[in-house]
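Quick start: read one record
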Amino acid sequence: MAGAEREQPVSARRAPGRSAKVGAALISVDGVSGTAAVAGGRAALAAVGKARRGGISTWDASGLFQDLAVADDEAGAPSARTLLLLYAADLAFRLRWEIRPALAEGRVVVAAPYVDTAVALGRAAGLPSGWLTNLFGFAPPAADSRYVDVLPTRTATADAGLLEFAWRQKVCMVVGLGRRELFEKTRAHLRILARRAGSSPSAGVMIVRRVRR
């Protein structure tokens, strides 16, 4: 799986109990296409001075999804709820071992994807917004939120991102949606979340419609 893709290593496996220093910042990059989100994350980090770059934290740093991908076919396709519970566990791992240690060192760290990709997928799959809010309530808000408005390609592999994994693992069939419908509904919910984030004066929001792969 993608694990933690870094421009320079995210501070890994350090005691995470410290508070963020002045100058530290978390940038979130969410989008239906995992490949495009990571590309957007690289672009965001490149705009930061080298001394402040804390790296990019990507999905499945914990390896949970890799384990699910190799499970026996008898296990069947996971439900959307199961998928998001695993994503929340993986995000908690990323926060503990990658994101918070980098912030404690006063660095800028990019999470690609972060919370909104998972929330949008959950809403597209028909999960209650209250349940999703409670599930991801542990995640701190990003100082700068970015949204990549790009759909995955048909050749995207399961390790490219959360939505690609959901498609390859036939989660769309479990929730009664086709591939295109799952992606489009998730993108629609992401656009709603982007508009809501943009209405908050405390958060910077950027919608990136094209990124280099």
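The two ends are 18 Å apart (CA to CA).
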